[in-house]
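hiii, so i know i said id send this last week but things got crazy w the move. better late than never?? heres the sequnce for the chain we talked about at the cafe, plus the structure i predicted for it. fair warning i was half asleep when i ran it
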Amino acid sequence: MSGIERELRERLAALRARIDAAARRAGRDPHRVDIVGAAKRQPLERIAAAVRAGLRDLGENYVQEAIDKRAKLNELLAPELAAAVRWHGIGHLQTNKARAAVGAFDLLHALDSPRLAAALEREAARAGHDLSVLLQVNLSREPQKSGADPDALPELIEGLRGCPHLRPIGLMTMPAADPDPEAARPIFRELRELEARLRTMPGGEALRELSMGMSDDFEVAVEEGATWVRIGTALFGAREA
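okay and structure toks below
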């Protein structure tokens, strides 16, 4: 085992222990929470080491970076290990990138408009496979952030009933930046409560996943119901410039 792999194994185990403790504090099953390794601008050798150490979910913000890394990791990893990795699109997606995204990602956390849904449906149908999607919600209502307004979600979900190749499985959000992790708790709680309401709507029955929480606030997110936490620097270390 290389030094990098040993380091990533230790980091992954420490994060898993913190997630398990947070889940138990909330009376939740720790096994319902998975780590998505946010691999944006992370060295390929550290990403490969994390996968060898047990990480099975990788997140990328940009489509082309995901395509490039996926191809290179397929060369570095044993075939069965590379095939076990699920690739998550966790950054804002423009409609003109829909075709590439359908080929690059197994799950997309950034569906935020009917226009994007239509583009993804068209490309998923062309490719002949389904795509699991999470609806990104701008609960902090910051104008510079992507994400649908929460009031627009019922219409978005209704429209997805006409997209047979898209499988809506949950919601995603990013709270406003704050050095205090507790500041994010109301947003995380609101996302959980919003999903519970949407689940009662036609088309929303399968919503079960909550993608929320990053390196600085993931424990609060787990306490509030996160099923996927998107962790970058706390897992891989500082990003490359």
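btw The chain has ten helices and eight strands. thought thatd interest u
miss u guys!!
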